[in-house]
Specification:
The chain has 20 helices and no strands. By secondary structure, the protein is mostly helical.
Length: 381
């Protein structure tokens, strides 16, 4: 008799264990036990939901969605299950189905801001700007400075080309998160789109100030400085960037050019441009810049060599290169050869080089006449 009771107990325990396993081991989880340690009575919908949550934690969204669909079919008013189903579908990039799930949750709880934000986000991914805008407006209607609402309304305005409106929304978002470097950078870019370089630089400087380790923002600030020809300001930034990205040829190129334009050491400038050429395999524009810097520093042989190397590479910088070659030849009193190069520049018609080349030809002719006069004078001395 005692043996029969033991077998019965083992049989019941086995059934209990199997039931626990069927619910993804829910029985072992302390949250499903009451204060006395007994297992809570979960509805079938709750069992499906709790199983789904564990699959969500494991990022197994397909399995999670299957359990959540069962949960809401068993209990259509299960708000949390609908919302989690929306999230799972969103993770699977099934945005249309995700909207349907979030709408079901929203109908049950229209005051939940997270549901409103999720609907806006999904409509954005469906490229439905009008519906996305409607839900994000709901957020700022309840809280004028709501970050989520304003940041996305700014994005929507930007997509529509409404730059001033986008700036207003992004500035409101900043009031909620003053140290948000990405938003500050977005405002800077919008001012850049407007052609307001001063404002663009102002906001980009703020972005770098609040997040100095954000190298994306640092690159954008460098680009803004460079475009505004603020070469002295951009030099330390490119030096900083090169420490992090030593193999970035454009950074070396812009650093070299900026040093030359800011009146720095020409050797340092040319070294950076030469490094850019080594990294890029040779660049006609780099050689044109090198030729220009060498000419400015009276290194005419080097200027000619750089210009000729650049011309061999071909490309769109022929006028720039030939002009520098003409200047170097002129400085070496090779006026006829210089005229030949300047004439080729004129034939190319590339401004501003072609305009300057015309003046240079006149100058070369004057220099030729002066040289002849000087030689004639020497005959009588």
């Amino acid at each position: 008799m005692k043996r029969a009771v033991t077998v019965s107990v083992i049989f019941l325990l086995s059934i209990f264990a199997i039931n626990c396993l069927s619910a993804v081991n829910l029985c072992a989880d302390p949250q499903f036990k009451d204060k006395r340690g007994f297992v809570k009575n979960l509805s079938d919908a709750e069992v499906e939901f709790q199983s789904a949550k564990q699959f969500m934690d494991m990022e197994n969204y397909h399995e999670a969605v299957d359990h959540l669909r069962k949960a809401v079919s068993l209990e259509p008013d299960y708000t949390e299950a609908w919302a989690t189903l929306g999230t799972g579908l969103m993770k699977l990039k099934m945005y249309k189905e995700s909207v349907e799930a979030f709408l079901a949750a929203f109908e049950l709880d229209p005051e939940d801001k997270s549901l409103i934000a999720s609907l806006g986000y999904n409509y954005l991914n469906l490229n439905d700007l009008d519906n996305a805008e409607m839900y994000y407006i709901m957020l700022i209607e309840s809280d004028f400075l709501d970050y989520n609402g304003n940041i996305h309304l700014g994005f929507i305005a930007k997509q529509r080309g409404e730059i001033d409106t986008a700036i207003v929304f992004y500035q409101r978002a900043l009031k909620a998160k003053p140290d948000d470097a990405v938003t500050i950078g977005s405002i800077a870019s919008l001012y850049g789109d407007k052609g307001d370089k001063d404002k663009e630089i102002e906001y980009m400087e703020k972005a770098v100030e609040v997040d100095p380790g954000n190298y994306t923002m640092l690159q954008k600030l460098a680009t803004a400085y460079f475009s505004a020809q603020k070469y002295s300001e951009v030099i330390p930034i490119y030096k900083n960037l090169i420490e992090v990205y030593p193999d970035n040829a454009p950074f070396h190129q812009r650093l070299g050019f900026s040093i030359s334009q800011a009146g720095g050491d020409y050797k340092e400038a040319t070294a950076e441009l030469e490094e850019a050429n080594l990294l890029s395999g040779g660049n006609a524009f780099n050689y044109a810049l090198l030729a220009k810097i060498y000419n400015e520093n009276k290194k005419y042989e080097k200027a000619m060599a750089a210009a000729r190397t650049g011309l061999k590479l071909g490309g769109e910088k022929e006028a720039f290169l030939r002009y520098q070659l003409g200047e170097a030849l002129s400085k070496q009193i090779r006026y006829e050869e210089a005229i030949t190069q300047f004439q080729k520049v004129i034939n190319l018609g590339t401004k501003p080089w072609s305009v300057s080349a015309k003046k240079q030809i006149e100058r070369q002719q004057t220099l030729i006449m002066r040289l002849k006069a000087q030689k004639e004078q020497e005959k009588y001395e």
